[in-house]
Design brief:
Layout lengths: L1 E12 L4 E4 L9 E10 L2 E7 L6 E7 L3 E12 L37 H8 L4 H15 L1 E2 L10 H7 L1 E2 L1 H14 L4 E7 L9 E8 L2 E5 L11 E6 L8 E3 L3 E13 L2
Helix pairs in contact: 2-4
Length: 260
């Protein structure tokens, strides 16, 4: 599946000229970046490795009081028609060292608070069947309601409120999967089915030696999601970070499927 991405952002900056951006499509397994271009007006750029070695972050040193950027990309994503339920479980002692951290609680995904719940709800299932059941439970129990959560909303808050946005759906899948002893990480992505169009968040779970996308919002399929970055939760991979307040003027994210 070929995906085209167009991003335009304009923010007023209050003081610090340094902005950390995480919005470029990653050079990662399962996707090929055919072409991409990031342009930041009146800024010098310095790229560094992304969290967990996935993708890149970009330091932008802006010389004006505004951050103005455009990002365009064409990405080919490998189709994945294999049902999630078909993936076998992996024993804990067979997990590679780099995925162990994604079994642990994090700032927004307090998975240790859901051990008893995960055991009660999903104990009879294994591997991909367990993940599919977690995805379906989140999809059924949570309502997608824009504006109902904020930057400090944790998965415990979401579990109580039973509503949120993609960030909260992804946190819920990650927390329940970790509580069920399946490594799960938070992923920022571009998806053509996202409504309203914006940066999107999904979970990734470790099954049969690889990471697999899980979108409990149902907005996009794994074979059309473009990976940007990964982390323990949303705190690790914000699309823009500043040390002083930045004020939104305009932001547009357009993601579309390319048809022959």
């Amino acid at each position: 599946m070929r995906i085209e991405i167009n991003v335009n952002m304009l923010y007023n900056l209050s003081a610090d000229p340094m902005v950390l951006l995480t919005l470029e499509a990653a050079r990662a397994a399962g996707q090929v970046v055919v072409q991409d271009r990031l342009s930041v007006e009146f800024a010098t750029l310095n790229r560094i490795a992304g969290e967990g070695g996935v993708g890149q972050r970009v330091w932008a040193c802006v010389t004006t009081e505004q951050l103005q950027l455009t990002y365009t990309a064409t990405v080919d994503v490998a189709e994945d028609d294999r049902p999630l339920e078909s993936y076998a479980p992996t024993a804990l002692h067979d997990l590679p060292g780099e995925v162990i951290t994604y079994l642990r609680p994090s700032r927004f995904c307090q998975s240790d608070q859901f051990l008893a719940f995960a055991q009660q709800k999903f104990q009879s299932l294994e591997g991909g069947q367990k993940v599919a059941a977690i995805r379906d439970w989140v999809a059924q129990e949570l309502r997608y309601v824009p504006g109902t959560s904020h930057a400090e909303t944790t998965v415990v808050d979401t579990f109580i409120a039973r509503e949120g946005v993609c960030r909260d759906f992804a946190h819920m899948v990650c927390a329940l999967a970790r509580a069920a002893q399946i490594p799960a990480r938070y992923a920022s992505v571009y998806g053509p089915g996202v409504n309203p169009p914006d940066f999107h968040a999904v979970a990734q779970v470790w099954l049969e030696g690889a990471w697999h996308m899980v979108d409990a919002t149902g907005m996009s399929r794994s074979g059309e999601l473009v990976l940007i970055a990964v982390g323990r939760d949303a705190h690790d991979i914000a699309f823009m970070e500043t040390q002083s307040p930045a004020y939104l003027v305009n932001q547009q994210v357009q993601v579309s499927r390319v048809t022959d």
